[in-house]
Amino acid sequence: MKIQNIIFPLMMAGVSHATTFSIDPSMDFIAALKAAQAGDTLKFEAGTYTIPYVVGSKNLIELSQKGTAMAPIVVWADGHAQAIFDFSFPELTYVDKSFGFYVTGNYWKFHGIGITRAGYQGAYITGSYNSFMDCAFFENRNTGLEINKGGNHTLVKRCDSYRNYDPKKGGSMADGFGPKETQGAGNKFVQCRAWENSDDGFDAYESPETVVIEDSWAFRNGVNVFGYTTFTGNGNGFKMGGNYIQANHTLLRCVAFDNPAKGFDENNNTGGITIEQSIGYANGINFGMGGDNLNAGQSHTFSNNISYAGLSSNGIADNSTEKNNSWNLGITPSKADFQSLDTTLATATRDADGNIPATILFRLTVSRKMIDAGADLGYDYVGSAPDLGPFETESGTTIIRSQQSPSAKALQKLRYYNLLGKRIQNAP
Question: Which of 157, 239, 262, 369 is catalytic?
Fold first, then answer.
């Protein structure tokens, strides 16, 4: 094979520092991944990269090498999830800890890859300062991407995780994204979508470390789309705690819908959680944040959120700070308040930049009661005040706000979209 005969020996001989290598499915891509050094870029062509399955055996790829901040190890494919790593586990088969990519090293940057049919988690991250951008994790035998065992400062951006199912426990383990348990500090998710995973969308179970989730969606998790007779999935969108551990998570401009348990769930977290400018729609409970087990000095904060069509009433802890949410403003949302509630739009193909596409789903109808009804939280807005929910609307034009923070406010450029979701101009 070309890569085995040419590239791999050069890497091992120390000749190929800070070099870009082109790889296609016919090459020995596993050898290349294991030999990559700080500063190297492995450029994967679009296609399927098959890892053979052997009954009862692990076939994970461990990536233990260490890049640096100035010389990361880059695994790159153009576009969104165009290089697919298929670990070939048949349906309903698994092997404990047969992860797909087992990232124990530091400063790896993954772009444009997909991981499917891994024998356990699709990607399992224990290293430091790694990132995944424009990736997808689907049909794995446990959580799509999990951060655990000290994994820290992981950035997961513009990634999708869907239809992951764990045959080990009938679906009660496989989440879309799992920053949990003994993870380290600094893990962040931006513009990610998690749908139709057997357990939960995002699961920050039993970890004291703060997780930040921005501009992300979780929907139809814990639904037996698999058709298995034994199914034990939980069905939460954003599960933000577990086992009475204190953690102070932040969720900004997030969307949760059609999760049969809860859209936003504190799950016995004894720490205060902040949820701003988000929407819960048609979940079993939209905001399940009513735990009475908060530690002294801890409280939840809810600002500019929308709750609509939950099957059961929200649960909000008594000592919560609630600012301009639909429920404490006395607003009862209705279908007429939204340009569309067609939730099939949620899985639309990402745009050319990898962003969640701008559609009319959950965008507010002009001149309705939730426009300009929010509190100023320091983010950009138009009109006299921010709108409720994740999206700003003005004169028939929806502004897509993404990755904003007060400290970076001046650097943000808003894109304007018409009612069909098409970009028509950039803001000056």
Answer: 239
